[in-house]
Amino acid sequence: MRLTRRQFGALALAGSTTLLLAACGQSSTGGPASAGGGQTTGGGQTTGGGQTTGGGQASGKPGTAGGNGGGGSVSFVTALAEDERTALGEILKGFESSAGVQVKMIQMESQDVVNQLKAKKTAGKVDVDLVAQDNLRLGPLVRDSIVEDLSGESARVPETTIDALVPVTQFDNKRFFLPYRPNVQIAFYNEAKLSAAGLQPPKTWDELLKAGQTLKEKEGIGKLAIQGAAGDPLSVTVFEFIKQAGGDPLALNDAGTVKAFEFMAQLEPLLTPEYRTAKFDTMNTIISNDTAYLGSNWPFGINVIVDKNGRKDIKAYQGWAGPNGESHVLGGEVLGIPAGAPNRAGALQLAEFLMSKDTQAALLTKLGWPPMRTDAFGNVPEWQKPYFQAVQEALKHVDARPNVPYWEDVSRAMNDAFRDIVQQKQPAKETLDRYASAIQKAKQAAGA
Amino acid sequence: MLLPLTLYILLLTFVPVLQAIGMSFTDRYSGAFPSLSNYQYIVGRPDFTAAFLNTLGITALSVSMEMVAGLILALMLARTFAGRGFFRTVILTPMGVPTLVAGAAMLYFFRTNGYVNEALLRLGLIDVPIYWTESGLRGVFAIALADMWKVTPIVTLLLLSGLESIPGDVYEAADVDGANRWQSFWSVTLPLLMPAITMALIVRAIDAFRIFDVVMVMASRSIPVMSTFVYSNYFDFQDPYSASAAATILLLMIVAFIAAYFLLVERRRGELA
Amino acid sequence: MSTQAISHPAAAAPRSGTNAAATRLVLRIGFVLLAAVFVVATLLPLLVLLKVSISAPQDIMTARPPFLIYNATLEHWRALLNPATLYGPARHSLLVATGTAVLGVLIAAPAAYVISRMPRTWRYGLILGLLFTQMFPDVGIAMPVAITFLRLGLNDTDLGLMLAHLVPTLPFVAWILVGTFEMIPREVEEAAFVDGNGKIGTLARVVMPLAAPGIAVAALFAWLKSWNDLVYAIYLFLGERTLPLMTFYYSNRGSVFDTATFAVLLTIPVMVVTLALQRYIEAGTLSGAIKG
């Protein structure tokens, strides 16, 4: 009894000291910490797997080395799958021999890039020269001055760059990034199952609803999928529906947005229940195992679904249009240089090489990545051509996500509104009004 | 002898924890301190309430199932029988499967085209597959089961090492007294095992309250728990203030649990001893 | 000694002949059944991973997965078993996990011994104080910890990762060891001390061997925590990946076959380590030490 009291004393003491000390230490620790224990978020289609190329021996430190202006080595952060890493390594060999610079590829998933670079910056140990980052996760890199202002390097951007990519690389009219690769989701569908139900791939919202109803009646369970995993995947999904209805995601309570949410609420019961966990990786799985017969994903799904999972019967098209036409979120990656990069000159050299016509054509031929410039042509393998056709079609209707400083608040509001209206069937207009004012508050706080 | 350990832990982790707690009392927009605005904000969020309740439910369910199964297994393993080495190796294996993979493995059973549904379909018990990881009791149960698979071996090990440390002569004494097995379990084994039980329970509870990967893999955030709530505020919405507030509440939940445990269980033991 | 004592099912209750035999039989059958249930429940998820890793896509990629394998293939294994890509990460993971376990026990054991000989209040106060730092979600503190390590230049070194893994491991290892030392009766120690073993001698020759099961468990615990770690490996190890990081990337980017195959591959070293350590968990090997 007496003992326990004392134990409590100790705990209470620890607790109160904690609060006291906390008062002193509040200012620092800005941003997000730690990295995904899970396969988490990642709006990215980019794909995983690489580190050092070319005979990377055991535990050498990456990066650093090298003087200025070419020579030495460049640490290049890029998230790739194993086969992509091999292919990019091949392409980079040309650069290594012509420029005399060794490239070290470092694997970092898009959701970790911000925190990793932030940790390095805070510690004063930046050893990364160039970063290819998912363009859905750029805001914090700029806000926390993790990447350099590249306004002075605009001349290096090719003139033939696709127009839609320009706003993605800029914040407040200042250039922080160089274009690298555009990307867009396409709709994968199970041809046999759809036609068995007498359906064509839906081209409009009405057809989408009808397909959902027909399939649900036939199978007893929803067979359509959208990417509904909380965070970036759901934000991309909601953003596309809002745009297809002519709404403005930043306002979130205009007529178009209301229409989009009402439509999603109608669609929701017709979806496979697993849509709640669907994101770039799980979408591949549920399409491959017939849990869903139709769903959108980034084009790397072509390799996984069709090639690795052996589902040659799964086809793709550019997806459906809403009352206001077709709209896809522009994904992909851009290149940035971390502030304090040890080999800035080498990084710029590498960036120019990556943006060049030949490299872009090679990336298309070897990896099926759509080029960032209009004058690069490549040859994709025969079996990939129909899929690539879908990507090209979808790319004609891309909307870049606005680079506003309060984007994360918009994203949270879209997630919350989806839960309330679409899943819990609360009235759309009133709910959206509430979240719209939350966005306005964040906007004012951000001084925008 | 205490110094290296204490310094190491305190210097490296105490300060970050304090900073985060400080941040939770700082207003996100004005920077005012102290402020309860972050707490007001998260408490008003429906997914926070859900996360709080789910965390309690999953912890209660998984820890009690793990403790019971772990105790049974430890008692079995403390005996000698043919094939014990094999049995022990098999039982301990899930420990080494990364949590991420354990979650993925459990999905083969619990997803809509998983083996649980397949078995039920074949038996004709259902016509349409069930969605197991739905929010609510069913999902909480599925996650607790998945967690249990992965961590029961750790509980078993902790209890087993406790059992093995009980000197044999204690049993011999009990034998001589003519106690039957059940009596000797209650009156000799269990009290002597209490330090190990306390240890296993607290180690497990701390981890169960912070459950993350399994939930993330099996249910994304359709079954929110405290850790995923923290994660999602940190990463998806770049709001470390709300995240810190939720993390602090999680810390308090764990402290409250441990306090309650010592009040209710350990105190009584202290009085007995 | 102790094992024997616990292991007589019905020894304590000698009832009338046939009745006792029947009880014993029922108990034995119950025991076997229970063991079977546990074995099956434990193995099933692993068998599923194994099954996926050796199945052709058409066996897995279906709404109605078969229970058996109809189209076996070694293709997934062939694709993954590339010594060039596996050797480095495997070496790091093994080295770091083993180092973490050894260092963890070395640092925590003396402290745990001291703590275990303190009055109850202090004991729990101290341990809970250490555990206090672990009650916060990893997400909240991994970055500041990583920054400290980066400042010290400990990134991309095996030692750095070991030291980082000790942060979440040490409090638990200490906790386990305190529990272990607590259970060693002081009389045993005092007797050995009186017998003419010095303080150190008593510790080395009597206390440590007695505590071996607990130490083995603590080491195994530390080994596994390090072996499974993702968070710190992501922050501190860019140059080359560890095995869990590779699993993470595979499950993120690759197909379910890559993930399953890699998962099976990952559990093999764990089984080896568990097997290697488990004889130390046996009390039987220790009773000699106690009596001798």
Structural notes for this entry:
- The complex is a heterotrimer of chains A (448), B (273) and C (292).
- Chain A is an alpha/beta fold.
- Chain A is 43% helix and 11% strand.
- Chain A has helices spanning 2-24, 82-99, 110-122, 139-143, 191-196, 205-219, 232-244, 255-267, 280-288, 300-308, 344-355, 357-367, 385-395, 407-423, 428-445, and strands at 73-77, 102-106, 130-134, 170-171, 174-175, 178-183, 186-190, 224-225, 294-297, 314-317, 328-329, 331-336, 398-399.
- Chain A has a 5-stranded mixed beta sheet, covered by helices on one side. Chain A has a 4-stranded mixed beta sheet with strand order 8-9-7-10.
- In chain A, helix 2 packs antiparallel against helix 12 and helix 7 packs across helix 14.
- Chain B is mainly α.
- Chain B has helices at 3-24, 37-43, 46-77, 84-92, 99-110, 115-122, 137-165, 168-176, 181-209, 213-219, 226-236, 240-272.
- Chain C has helices spanning 2-6, 17-53, 57-60, 75-80, 83-116, 120-132, 138-151, 158-182, 186-194, 199-228, 231-236, 243-253, 256-281, 284-291.
- The longest helix of chain C is centred in the N-terminal third of the chain and has 37 residues, at 17-53.
- Chain C contains 14 helices and no strands.
- Chain C is mostly helical and 292 residues long.
- Chains in contact: A-B, A-C, B-C.
- At the A-C interface, helix 1, helix 3, helix 9 and helix 10 of A face helix 3, helix 5, helix 6, helix 7 and helix 11 of C.
Tell me, what's the shape of chain B? Answer: globular
Q: Could you list the spans of chain B in which at least 5 consecutive residues all have pLDDT below 50? A: none
Instruction: Tell me about the largest β-sheet of chain B.
Output: none
Indicate the radius of gyration of chain B in whole angstroms.
22 Å
Determine the number of helices of chain B (DSSP H or I, runs of at least 4 residues): 12
- Give the H and E element order of chain B: HHHHHHHHHHHH
> How many runs of DSSP E, i.e. beta strands of chain B?
0
Give me a quick take on this structure.
Chain A is an alpha/beta fold and about 450 residues long. Chain A contains 15 helices and 13 strands. Chain A has helices spanning about 1-25, 80-100, 110-120, 140-145, 190-195, 205-220, 230-245, 255-265, 280-290, 300-310, 345-355, 355-365, 385-395, 405-425, 430-445, and strands spanning about 75, 100-105, 130-135, 170, 175, 180-185, 185-190, 225, 295, 315, 330, 330-335, 400.
